[in-house]
Amino acid sequence: MKYYITTLGCPKNEADSREMDKSLLLEGFEKTQKPENADFHIINTCAFIEDAKKETIQTIFQALELKEFLINKNKDQKLIVVGCFAERYHKEIEIEIPEIDYFFGTGLYHRTGELIRNKFQIPLKQNVDYHKILKNIHSPKKFYAPVKISEGCNRNCSFCAIPLFRGNFRFREKSEIIKEILELSGMGIKEICLVSQDTNSYGNHYNDIINLLEEIEQLKGIEWIRLLYLYPDKKTQKILQEIHKNQFKKFVPYLESPVQHVSEKVLKKMNRFGNYEFFKELFLMARELFPELEIRTSFLIGFSEETSEDIELIKQFIEELQIEHISFFAFSPEENTPAYQYASSINKKEIIEKINDLQNYYNELLKSIMIKNYNKIYKCILEKIKPKELHLRRPQAAPEIDDIVIVPFDYKSWKEKYSQLPKLGEFYEVEITDSISYDYIGNIKNPVLMEH
Ligand code: SF4
Protein backbone atom coordinates (compact mmCIF):
# COMPACT_ATOMS: atom_id res chain seq x y z
CA MET A 1 0.00 0.00 0.00
CA LYS A 2 1.45 3.34 -1.05
CA TYR A 3 1.10 6.67 0.73
CA TYR A 4 1.91 10.30 0.06
CA ILE A 5 2.05 13.10 2.66
CA THR A 6 1.30 16.72 1.79
CA THR A 7 2.76 18.91 4.55
CA LEU A 8 1.43 22.42 5.17
CA GLY A 9 2.55 25.01 7.70
CA CYS A 10 5.69 25.39 9.73
CA PRO A 11 8.89 23.33 10.29
CA LYS A 12 7.19 21.77 13.32
CA ASN A 13 4.74 20.13 10.93
CA GLU A 14 7.64 18.93 8.84
CA ALA A 15 9.04 17.18 11.93
CA ASP A 16 5.59 15.64 12.57
CA SER A 17 5.37 14.42 8.97
CA ARG A 18 8.73 12.73 9.40
CA GLU A 19 7.30 10.94 12.43
CA MET A 20 4.34 9.84 10.30
CA ASP A 21 6.73 8.61 7.61
CA LYS A 22 8.56 6.49 10.12
CA SER A 23 5.36 5.04 11.56
CA LEU A 24 3.91 4.25 8.11
CA LEU A 25 7.11 2.65 6.81
CA LEU A 26 7.45 0.57 9.97
CA GLU A 27 3.92 -0.71 9.46
CA GLY A 28 4.81 -1.82 5.95
CA PHE A 29 3.48 1.07 3.85
CA GLU A 30 5.50 2.28 0.89
CA LYS A 31 6.27 5.94 0.23
CA THR A 32 5.50 7.35 -3.21
CA GLN A 33 6.73 10.63 -4.70
CA LYS A 34 3.44 11.61 -6.38
CA PRO A 35 0.01 11.95 -4.74
CA GLU A 36 -1.73 10.39 -7.76
CA ASN A 37 0.15 7.13 -7.19
CA ALA A 38 -0.88 6.86 -3.54
CA ASP A 39 -3.54 4.61 -2.00
CA PHE A 40 -3.54 6.97 0.98
CA HIS A 41 -3.13 10.70 0.53
CA ILE A 42 -2.44 12.23 3.94
CA ILE A 43 -2.60 16.00 4.46
CA ASN A 44 -0.76 17.32 7.51
CA THR A 45 -2.61 20.58 8.10
CA CYS A 46 -2.10 24.00 9.65
CA ALA A 47 -4.67 26.14 11.44
CA PHE A 48 -2.48 28.91 12.83
CA ILE A 49 -4.13 31.95 11.29
CA GLU A 50 -6.79 32.80 8.73
CA ASP A 51 -4.47 32.45 5.72
CA ALA A 52 -3.17 29.08 6.91
CA LYS A 53 -6.73 27.81 7.34
CA LYS A 54 -7.65 29.01 3.85
CA GLU A 55 -4.63 27.21 2.40
CA THR A 56 -5.56 24.04 4.27
CA ILE A 57 -9.14 24.09 2.99
CA GLN A 58 -7.94 24.79 -0.54
CA THR A 59 -5.49 21.87 -0.34
CA ILE A 60 -8.20 19.53 0.97
CA PHE A 61 -10.49 20.44 -1.93
CA GLN A 62 -7.71 19.99 -4.47
CA ALA A 63 -7.02 16.57 -2.96
CA LEU A 64 -10.73 15.73 -3.22
CA GLU A 65 -10.63 16.64 -6.92
CA LEU A 66 -7.70 14.25 -7.36
CA LYS A 67 -9.60 11.55 -5.45
CA GLU A 68 -12.61 12.06 -7.74
CA PHE A 69 -10.40 11.90 -10.83
CA LEU A 70 -8.86 8.64 -9.61
CA ILE A 71 -12.26 7.11 -8.84
CA ASN A 72 -13.12 7.65 -12.50
CA LYS A 73 -10.03 5.63 -13.31
CA ASN A 74 -11.11 2.87 -10.90
CA LYS A 75 -8.58 3.77 -8.21
CA ASP A 76 -10.00 4.11 -4.72
CA GLN A 77 -7.65 6.60 -3.06
CA LYS A 78 -8.35 7.41 0.60
CA LEU A 79 -8.00 10.99 1.78
CA ILE A 80 -6.78 11.40 5.35
CA VAL A 81 -6.58 14.77 7.10
CA VAL A 82 -4.43 15.08 10.21
CA GLY A 83 -2.80 17.68 12.47
CA CYS A 84 -3.74 21.13 13.71
CA PHE A 85 -6.75 21.80 11.45
CA ALA A 86 -8.19 18.34 12.10
CA GLU A 87 -7.74 18.81 15.83
CA ARG A 88 -9.36 22.22 15.88
CA TYR A 89 -12.23 21.66 13.44
CA HIS A 90 -12.97 17.94 13.75
CA LYS A 91 -16.73 18.50 14.22
CA GLU A 92 -16.94 20.75 11.17
CA ILE A 93 -14.91 18.30 9.05
CA GLU A 94 -17.21 15.44 9.96
CA ILE A 95 -20.34 17.35 9.03
CA GLU A 96 -19.17 19.51 6.14
CA ILE A 97 -16.60 17.37 4.30
CA PRO A 98 -17.83 13.77 4.59
CA GLU A 99 -15.74 12.83 1.54
CA ILE A 100 -12.68 12.80 3.84
CA ASP A 101 -12.16 9.13 4.66
CA TYR A 102 -10.40 9.53 7.99
CA PHE A 103 -9.01 12.26 10.20
CA PHE A 104 -7.17 12.66 13.48
CA GLY A 105 -5.58 15.55 15.34
CA THR A 106 -2.20 16.33 16.85
CA GLY A 107 -0.38 13.98 19.18
CA LEU A 108 -0.98 10.76 17.19
CA TYR A 109 1.62 11.19 14.46
CA HIS A 110 3.79 8.38 15.81
CA ARG A 111 0.82 5.99 15.49
CA THR A 112 -0.21 6.97 11.94
CA GLY A 113 0.66 3.61 10.36
CA GLU A 114 -1.14 1.60 13.02
CA LEU A 115 -4.23 3.88 12.95
CA ILE A 116 -4.56 3.66 9.18
CA ARG A 117 -4.02 -0.08 9.19
CA ASN A 118 -6.72 -0.55 11.80
CA LYS A 119 -9.17 1.81 10.15
CA PHE A 120 -8.85 0.25 6.70
CA GLN A 121 -8.12 -3.30 7.91
CA ILE A 122 -4.74 -3.65 6.28
CA PRO A 123 -2.68 -6.61 7.48
CA LEU A 124 0.66 -5.88 9.15
CA LYS A 125 3.70 -6.52 6.95
CA GLN A 126 6.29 -8.69 8.65
CA ASN A 127 10.09 -8.39 8.66
CA VAL A 128 10.35 -4.68 7.95
CA ASP A 129 13.98 -3.54 7.69
CA TYR A 130 14.38 -0.56 10.07
CA HIS A 131 17.62 0.70 8.48
CA LYS A 132 16.14 0.64 5.01
CA ILE A 133 13.20 2.62 6.40
CA LEU A 134 15.44 5.34 7.77
CA LYS A 135 17.01 5.76 4.35
CA ASN A 136 13.56 6.17 2.80
CA ILE A 137 12.38 8.91 5.13
CA HIS A 138 14.61 11.65 3.88
CA SER A 139 15.20 12.99 0.44
CA PRO A 140 18.88 12.46 -0.36
CA LYS A 141 18.93 16.05 -1.64
CA LYS A 142 18.00 17.61 1.71
CA PHE A 143 20.66 18.27 4.31
CA TYR A 144 18.71 19.94 7.08
CA ALA A 145 15.96 18.66 9.32
CA PRO A 146 13.70 20.26 11.91
CA VAL A 147 13.74 18.34 15.19
CA LYS A 148 11.03 18.96 17.74
CA ILE A 149 12.22 19.45 21.29
CA SER A 150 8.88 20.21 22.89
CA GLU A 151 5.19 20.46 22.12
CA GLY A 152 2.46 22.89 23.15
CA CYS A 153 2.71 26.23 24.92
CA ASN A 154 1.69 27.75 28.27
CA ARG A 155 2.25 31.39 27.41
CA ASN A 156 -1.34 32.37 26.61
CA CYS A 157 -0.69 35.15 24.14
CA SER A 158 -4.17 36.59 23.75
CA PHE A 159 -4.29 36.22 19.94
CA CYS A 160 -2.92 32.71 19.70
CA ALA A 161 -4.95 29.56 19.16
CA ILE A 162 -1.98 27.20 19.16
CA PRO A 163 -2.31 26.10 22.81
CA LEU A 164 -5.94 25.18 22.03
CA PHE A 165 -4.94 22.48 19.55
CA ARG A 166 -1.34 21.73 20.53
CA GLY A 167 -2.04 21.62 24.24
CA ASN A 168 0.03 22.57 27.26
CA PHE A 169 3.80 22.73 27.13
CA ARG A 170 5.71 19.45 27.55
CA PHE A 171 9.25 18.69 26.50
CA ARG A 172 10.91 15.62 25.00
CA GLU A 173 13.58 13.71 26.86
CA LYS A 174 17.09 14.62 25.80
CA SER A 175 17.93 10.97 25.04
CA GLU A 176 14.96 10.72 22.66
CA ILE A 177 16.02 13.89 20.82
CA ILE A 178 19.62 12.71 20.54
CA LYS A 179 18.47 9.34 19.21
CA GLU A 180 16.46 11.08 16.50
CA ILE A 181 19.39 13.34 15.57
CA LEU A 182 21.71 10.34 15.37
CA GLU A 183 19.30 8.69 12.94
CA LEU A 184 19.16 11.90 10.92
CA SER A 185 22.92 12.24 10.73
CA GLY A 186 22.99 8.66 9.47
CA MET A 187 20.70 9.81 6.64
CA GLY A 188 23.16 12.54 5.62
CA ILE A 189 21.56 15.42 7.55
CA LYS A 190 24.11 18.11 8.41
CA GLU A 191 21.98 20.86 9.87
CA ILE A 192 19.61 20.41 12.79
CA CYS A 193 16.95 23.05 13.40
CA LEU A 194 15.60 22.65 16.91
CA VAL A 195 11.93 23.61 16.76
CA SER A 196 9.00 23.92 19.14
CA GLN A 197 6.26 26.38 20.00
CA ASP A 198 8.36 27.76 22.82
CA THR A 199 12.03 26.79 22.62
CA ASN A 200 13.41 28.66 25.61
CA SER A 201 11.03 26.84 27.98
CA TYR A 202 12.75 23.55 27.21
CA GLY A 203 13.55 21.46 30.30
CA ASN A 204 13.28 22.49 33.90
CA HIS A 205 16.07 25.06 33.78
CA TYR A 206 17.81 26.99 31.00
CA ASN A 207 20.81 24.73 31.58
CA ASP A 208 18.82 21.86 30.09
CA ILE A 209 18.89 23.43 26.64
CA ILE A 210 22.60 24.14 27.03
CA ASN A 211 23.19 20.49 27.95
CA LEU A 212 21.20 19.43 24.91
CA LEU A 213 23.27 21.69 22.63
CA GLU A 214 26.46 20.38 24.22
CA GLU A 215 25.50 16.83 23.40
CA ILE A 216 24.50 17.66 19.81
CA GLU A 217 27.87 19.41 19.40
CA GLN A 218 29.57 16.06 19.93
CA LEU A 219 27.60 14.24 17.21
CA LYS A 220 29.63 13.36 14.16
CA GLY A 221 28.14 14.45 10.87
CA ILE A 222 26.12 17.35 12.31
CA GLU A 223 27.73 20.63 11.22
CA TRP A 224 25.17 23.29 12.02
CA ILE A 225 22.77 23.64 14.94
CA ARG A 226 20.02 26.23 14.69
CA LEU A 227 17.68 27.20 17.52
CA LEU A 228 14.33 28.41 16.26
CA TYR A 229 11.63 30.36 18.09
CA LEU A 230 13.22 31.85 21.17
CA TYR A 231 10.63 33.90 23.05
CA PRO A 232 12.14 37.39 23.49
CA ASP A 233 12.57 37.49 27.25
CA LYS A 234 15.29 37.34 29.90
CA LYS A 235 15.62 33.58 29.60
CA THR A 236 16.63 33.93 25.96
CA GLN A 237 19.23 36.49 27.06
CA LYS A 238 20.57 33.97 29.56
CA ILE A 239 20.61 31.13 27.01
CA LEU A 240 22.55 33.25 24.50
CA GLN A 241 25.09 34.18 27.17
CA GLU A 242 25.55 30.52 28.09
CA ILE A 243 25.95 29.48 24.45
CA HIS A 244 28.61 32.15 24.09
CA LYS A 245 30.34 31.05 27.28
CA ASN A 246 30.43 27.45 26.05
CA GLN A 247 31.85 28.49 22.66
CA PHE A 248 29.70 25.99 20.79
CA LYS A 249 31.28 25.69 17.36
CA LYS A 250 28.26 24.32 15.55
CA PHE A 251 25.77 26.91 16.80
CA VAL A 252 24.98 29.10 13.79
CA PRO A 253 25.03 32.88 14.31
CA TYR A 254 21.29 33.24 13.89
CA LEU A 255 18.67 34.42 16.36
CA GLU A 256 15.03 33.80 15.63
CA SER A 257 13.01 35.66 18.20
CA PRO A 258 9.53 36.93 17.29
CA VAL A 259 8.80 40.18 19.13
CA GLN A 260 5.32 40.58 17.53
CA HIS A 261 5.32 44.30 18.36
CA VAL A 262 7.41 46.96 20.05
CA SER A 263 4.64 49.12 21.49
CA GLU A 264 4.32 48.19 25.17
CA LYS A 265 0.62 49.06 25.15
CA VAL A 266 -0.06 46.63 22.28
CA LEU A 267 2.21 43.95 23.77
CA LYS A 268 0.29 44.13 27.04
CA LYS A 269 -2.98 43.60 25.19
CA MET A 270 -1.35 40.66 23.43
CA ASN A 271 -0.40 39.35 26.88
CA ARG A 272 3.25 39.29 25.84
CA PHE A 273 6.43 40.29 27.59
CA GLY A 274 8.66 43.18 26.61
CA ASN A 275 8.88 46.64 25.12
CA TYR A 276 11.03 48.61 22.68
CA GLU A 277 13.89 49.08 25.13
CA PHE A 278 14.04 45.47 26.27
CA PHE A 279 14.01 44.05 22.74
CA LYS A 280 16.68 46.55 21.75
CA GLU A 281 18.83 45.44 24.69
CA LEU A 282 18.28 41.76 23.82
CA PHE A 283 19.17 42.14 20.15
CA LEU A 284 22.18 44.39 20.82
CA MET A 285 23.46 41.93 23.39
CA ALA A 286 23.07 39.06 20.90
CA ARG A 287 25.00 40.99 18.26
CA GLU A 288 27.75 41.80 20.70
CA LEU A 289 28.11 38.17 21.77
CA PHE A 290 28.05 36.85 18.19
CA PRO A 291 29.42 39.51 15.82
CA GLU A 292 28.37 37.52 12.70
CA LEU A 293 24.80 37.10 13.97
CA GLU A 294 21.71 37.85 11.92
CA ILE A 295 18.27 38.28 13.43
CA ARG A 296 14.85 37.06 12.30
CA THR A 297 11.77 38.46 13.97
CA SER A 298 8.09 38.91 13.19
CA PHE A 299 5.41 41.49 13.81
CA LEU A 300 1.69 40.98 14.19
CA ILE A 301 -0.02 43.97 12.64
CA GLY A 302 -3.50 45.35 13.20
CA PHE A 303 -4.05 44.33 16.81
CA SER A 304 -6.64 46.21 18.77
CA GLU A 305 -5.90 49.87 19.51
CA GLU A 306 -2.76 49.91 17.39
CA THR A 307 -2.19 53.49 16.23
CA SER A 308 -0.15 55.02 13.43
CA GLU A 309 2.41 56.01 16.11
CA ASP A 310 2.79 52.32 16.96
CA ILE A 311 3.53 51.55 13.31
CA GLU A 312 6.11 54.35 13.25
CA LEU A 313 7.68 52.80 16.34
CA ILE A 314 8.09 49.49 14.47
CA LYS A 315 9.80 51.36 11.61
CA GLN A 316 12.10 53.08 14.07
CA PHE A 317 12.94 49.74 15.70
CA ILE A 318 13.75 47.85 12.53
CA GLU A 319 15.87 50.72 11.29
CA GLU A 320 17.70 51.16 14.57
CA LEU A 321 18.37 47.44 15.00
CA GLN A 322 19.03 46.81 11.27
CA ILE A 323 17.13 43.53 11.36
CA GLU A 324 18.05 41.19 8.53
CA HIS A 325 14.96 38.99 8.33
CA ILE A 326 11.39 40.07 9.10
CA SER A 327 7.88 38.71 8.53
CA PHE A 328 4.81 40.88 8.97
CA PHE A 329 1.57 39.01 9.72
CA ALA A 330 -1.97 40.35 9.78
CA PHE A 331 -3.85 39.90 13.05
CA SER A 332 -6.68 37.46 12.51
CA PRO A 333 -9.10 37.01 15.41
CA GLU A 334 -9.27 33.31 16.23
CA GLU A 335 -12.30 31.68 17.85
CA ASN A 336 -11.90 30.80 21.54
CA THR A 337 -8.95 33.13 22.09
CA PRO A 338 -9.24 36.26 24.32
CA ALA A 339 -8.50 38.48 21.31
CA TYR A 340 -11.57 37.15 19.48
CA GLN A 341 -13.50 39.92 21.24
CA TYR A 342 -11.85 42.37 18.80
CA ALA A 343 -13.22 40.54 15.75
CA SER A 344 -15.95 43.08 15.03
CA SER A 345 -13.67 46.11 15.39
CA ILE A 346 -10.84 45.16 13.05
CA ASN A 347 -10.56 46.66 9.61
CA LYS A 348 -8.96 44.16 7.23
CA LYS A 349 -8.34 46.74 4.52
CA GLU A 350 -6.55 49.01 6.95
CA ILE A 351 -4.39 46.12 8.19
CA ILE A 352 -3.34 45.25 4.65
CA GLU A 353 -2.44 48.90 4.03
CA LYS A 354 -0.36 49.00 7.20
CA ILE A 355 1.47 45.81 6.24
CA ASN A 356 2.15 47.08 2.72
CA ASP A 357 3.49 50.31 4.14
CA LEU A 358 5.79 48.44 6.56
CA GLN A 359 6.89 45.98 3.91
CA ASN A 360 7.79 48.77 1.47
CA TYR A 361 9.66 50.60 4.17
CA TYR A 362 11.49 47.43 5.11
CA ASN A 363 12.34 46.46 1.52
CA GLU A 364 14.16 49.77 1.08
CA LEU A 365 16.01 49.32 4.35
CA LEU A 366 16.87 45.72 3.53
CA LYS A 367 18.79 46.75 0.42
CA SER A 368 21.24 48.72 2.54
CA ILE A 369 21.43 45.92 5.13
CA MET A 370 22.27 43.39 2.43
CA ILE A 371 24.90 45.63 0.82
CA LYS A 372 26.86 45.44 4.06
CA ASN A 373 27.43 41.74 3.35
CA TYR A 374 29.01 42.35 -0.07
CA ASN A 375 32.63 41.16 -0.27
CA LYS A 376 32.18 39.05 2.85
CA ILE A 377 33.10 35.38 2.67
CA TYR A 378 30.81 32.74 4.15
CA LYS A 379 31.06 29.01 4.64
CA CYS A 380 27.93 27.93 2.76
CA ILE A 381 26.21 24.62 2.18
CA LEU A 382 25.48 23.61 -1.42
CA GLU A 383 21.79 22.74 -1.73
CA LYS A 384 20.99 22.76 -5.43
CA ILE A 385 22.86 22.32 -8.70
CA LYS A 386 21.02 23.79 -11.68
CA PRO A 387 22.28 23.79 -15.28
CA LYS A 388 23.56 27.37 -15.03
CA GLU A 389 23.72 28.07 -11.30
CA LEU A 390 24.51 26.68 -7.88
CA HIS A 391 22.31 27.47 -4.88
CA LEU A 392 24.06 27.69 -1.54
CA ARG A 393 22.95 28.85 1.89
CA ARG A 394 24.77 30.85 4.56
CA PRO A 395 24.69 29.83 8.23
CA GLN A 396 22.89 33.14 8.84
CA ALA A 397 19.94 31.97 6.75
CA ALA A 398 17.36 29.41 7.88
CA PRO A 399 16.25 26.84 5.32
CA GLU A 400 13.17 27.56 3.22
CA ILE A 401 12.47 30.99 4.67
CA ASP A 402 15.63 33.12 4.36
CA ASP A 403 17.97 34.02 1.54
CA ILE A 404 20.09 31.77 -0.64
CA VAL A 405 23.32 32.58 -2.48
CA ILE A 406 23.15 32.07 -6.23
CA VAL A 407 26.47 31.31 -7.88
CA PRO A 408 26.73 31.29 -11.71
CA PHE A 409 27.85 27.85 -12.82
CA ASP A 410 29.09 26.33 -16.02
CA TYR A 411 29.63 22.60 -15.87
CA LYS A 412 32.15 22.47 -18.73
CA SER A 413 34.46 25.23 -17.53
CA TRP A 414 34.24 24.00 -13.95
CA LYS A 415 35.27 20.52 -15.09
CA GLU A 416 38.18 21.91 -17.09
CA LYS A 417 39.36 24.09 -14.25
CA TYR A 418 38.96 21.94 -11.15
CA SER A 419 39.56 18.33 -10.26
CA GLN A 420 36.32 17.83 -8.30
CA LEU A 421 32.77 18.61 -9.36
CA PRO A 422 30.52 20.53 -6.95
CA LYS A 423 28.84 18.18 -4.52
CA LEU A 424 25.44 18.64 -2.89
CA GLY A 425 25.50 18.88 0.89
CA GLU A 426 29.14 19.99 1.01
CA PHE A 427 30.49 23.29 2.30
CA TYR A 428 32.21 25.93 0.16
CA GLU A 429 33.66 29.35 0.78
CA VAL A 430 31.51 31.85 -1.06
CA GLU A 431 32.15 35.55 -1.57
CA ILE A 432 29.06 37.75 -1.83
CA THR A 433 29.21 40.06 -4.82
CA ASP A 434 25.66 41.32 -5.30
CA SER A 435 22.02 40.73 -4.42
CA ILE A 436 18.78 40.21 -6.24
CA SER A 437 15.55 40.75 -4.32
CA TYR A 438 15.96 38.74 -1.06
CA ASP A 439 18.83 36.57 -2.34
CA TYR A 440 22.54 37.09 -2.80
CA ILE A 441 24.79 36.53 -5.79
CA GLY A 442 28.26 35.19 -5.13
CA ASN A 443 31.37 33.41 -6.31
CA ILE A 444 32.91 30.25 -5.01
CA LYS A 445 36.17 31.38 -3.47
CA ASN A 446 37.50 27.95 -2.88
CA PRO A 447 36.29 25.20 -5.23
CA VAL A 448 37.82 22.53 -3.04
CA LEU A 449 35.49 21.05 -0.43
CA MET A 450 36.00 22.72 2.91
CA GLU A 451 37.37 20.79 5.85
CA HIS A 452 34.56 20.33 8.35
S1 SF4 B 1 4.37 31.94 22.68
FE1 SF4 B 1 2.40 32.90 22.33
S2 SF4 B 1 2.29 33.03 20.06
FE2 SF4 B 1 3.84 31.50 20.55
S3 SF4 B 1 2.73 29.54 20.58
FE3 SF4 B 1 2.81 30.29 22.68
S4 SF4 B 1 0.84 31.36 22.95
FE4 SF4 B 1 1.20 31.14 20.74
Can you list the strand order of the major beta sheet? 2-1-3-4-5
Assembly of the depicted chains: single chain
Number of helices in the DSSP assignment: 15
Extended strand count: 18
N→C terminal distance:
41 Å
Overall shape: globular
For the record, what CATH class of the largest domain applies?
Alpha Beta
Number of domains: 3
Mean pLDDT: 92
Task: Flag low-confidence runs.
Answer: none
Helix content: 25-40%
CATH architecture of the largest domain: Alpha-Beta Horseshoe
Gyration radius (Cα, Å) is 23 Å
What small ligands are held by the chains? iron/sulfur cluster
Major β-sheet profile: 5 strands, parallel
> Beta fraction of the residues?
15-25%
Q: Which structural class best describes the helix and strand composition? A: alpha/beta
CATH topology of the largest domain: pyruvate-formate lyase- activating enzyme
The CATH superfamily of the largest domain bears the name: tm_1862 like domain
Task: Fill in the keyword field for this structure.
five-stranded parallel sheet, 39% helix, 452 residues, Rossmann fold, 15 helices, pyruvate-formate lyase- activating enzyme, 18 strands, binds iron/sulfur cluster, five-stranded mixed β-barrel, OB fold (Dihydrolipoamide Acetyltransferase, E2P), alpha/beta, globular
Question: Would you give an account of this structure?
Answer:
- The strands form five sheets. A five-stranded parallel β-sheet has the order 2-1-3-4-5, sandwiched between helices.
- It has three domains: 131 residues, Rossmann fold (3-Layer(aba) Sandwich); 235 residues, tm_1862 like domain (pyruvate-formate lyase- activating enzyme); 70 residues, Nucleic acid-binding proteins (OB fold (Dihydrolipoamide Acetyltransferase, E2P), Beta Barrel).
- It has 452 residues and is an alpha/beta fold.
- Helix 13 links the parallel strand 12 and strand 13.
- The relative contact order is 0.08.
- Helices cover 39% and strands 21% of the residues.
- It is globular and about 60 Å long.
- Iron/sulfur cluster binds next to helix 7.
